[in-house]
């Protein structure tokens, strides 16, 4: 299982997931840079993702939806802030309607994904920061830890393919 640690802090308004993969940094980075690979690991296994727009450059927009087992679409967006390939990228992440307009009553997180070479492969640290403890608690109650962990744990299979 790639996920090695999960921490959340209502005081610091953060959720941090750490994972390790037996692959070079550039290979793990490529999963996030290529929307077709990202579709294979974004979201839990029972909610496959489809990336409609994917521009992993500063100021770029990424729009996607996940499809539930019942066929419902759950849409989201990223607004890319910084990219330091293959070390780190930052982005805002939020929920969207079916036209990819942000849903104003849903939490938005500021995310930093950091890729680091370690003995035997790559460590990725996924940090999400929220604007309030209530926003963080809302996504925790929605199952973000379980969903994100299940999604990240799919990366090993993709790397082995």
Please describe what this structure looks like:
By secondary structure, the chain is an alpha+beta fold. The protein has a single domain (about 5-160), classed as START domain (Alpha-D-Glucose-1,6-Bisphosphate, Chain A, domain 4). It is built from five helices and eight strands. It has helices at about 25-35, 35-40, 135-140, 145-150, 155-160, and strands at about 5-10, 15-20, 50-55, 60-65, 75-85, 90-95, 110-120, 120-130. The chain has an eight-stranded antiparallel beta sheet with strand order 1-2-8-7-6-5-4-3. It is globular and about 45 Å long. The mean pLDDT is about 95. Pfam families: AHSA1. Belongs to the AHA1 family. InterPro entries: ASHA1/2-like_C, START-like_dom_sf.
Cross-sheet strand order for the largest sheet: 1-2-8-7-6-5-4-3
Beta percentage is 35-45%
By CATH, the topology is Alpha-D-Glucose-1,6-Bisphosphate, Chain A, domain 4
Order of helices and strands: EEHHEEEEEEHHH
CATH superfamily: START domain
**Overall number of structural domains:** 1
SS content category:
alpha+beta
Radius of gyration: 15 Å
Pfam families: AHSA1
Family: Belongs to the AHA1 family.
Domain Activator of Hsp90 ATPase homologue 1/2-like C-terminal: 23-159
Core attributes:
161 residues; alpha+beta; Alpha-D-Glucose-1,6-Bisphosphate, Chain A, domain 4; 5 helices; 8 strands; globular; ASHA1/2-like_C; START-like_dom_sf
Short description:
This protein has 161 residues and is of the alpha+beta class. The chain has helices spanning 25-33, 35-38, 133-141, 144-152, 155-160, and strands at residues 3-9, 14-21, 49-54, 61-67, 73-84, 88-96, 108-118, 121-130. It has one domain (3-160): Alpha-D-Glucose-1,6-Bisphosphate, Chain A, domain 4, CATH 3.30.530.
